[in-house]
Amino acid sequence: MKPRLSKGLGVTFLVCCVMLFALIIQGCKSESTFQKLSFQTEYQAVFLDNGQAFFGKGELGQDYVTLRDVFYIQSSVNPETKEIKNTLIKKGKEWHGPDMMHINRSHVVLIEPVSPDSQVARLIREVKGQTSMENK
User: Fold this and answer.
1) Sign of the four-CA dihedral 61, 95, 74, 118
2) Residue 99: how many CA atoms within 13 Å on its side-chain side?
3) If you placed Cys at 110, which of 14, 20, 47, 74 could pair as Cys (CB 3.0 to 4.6 Å)?
């Protein structure tokens, strides 16, 4: 005697297969949507799942977001006044002198434009102005 599957189990299996197929299709669509993004401003803010944020000129790849001309914010606390000071730092002064970053897309939470008249854009212009003065 052959064991028989109940109708309910067969229907459940069919529903699960359809749902899995739909999820696979949705995943493929979201991949192509990410590739079609384009940036309308010179700089973008990239926020990561570990709380870090970087500002730079972004390019989207299949698995990575590439940032060039990268900046980040460094916070320091004045021990006497307990005042927190935030400073915009240009990446590249580290020992290995990086000139770009490749960020794994799976760690990117959010990408936003940096408005040309924002405080971050103003600080980037100031830092770049200081750098060009140092190179003279």
Assistant:
1) negative
2) 0
3) 47
Helix H or strand E encompassing 32: helix 7-36
The single-letter code of the amino acid at 135 is N
Amino acid 101 reads M
Write down the residue that tokens 């320091």 correspond to. Answer: 76
Angle (CA) 62-49-61 rounded to 5° is 10
Give the whole-number percent of the chain exceeding pLDDT 90.
49
Looking up tokens 């790849």, which residue turns up? Answer: 61
Residue 127, exposed/middle/buried by CB under 10 A (0-12, 13-18, 19+)? Answer: middle
Structure tokens at 118: 């924002």
- The amino acid present at 57, given as its one-letter code, is K
pLDDT in tens, 37-58: 678 899 999 999 999 999 999 9
User: Cα separations (Å) of 35 from 3, 39, 43?
Assistant: 49, 11, 18
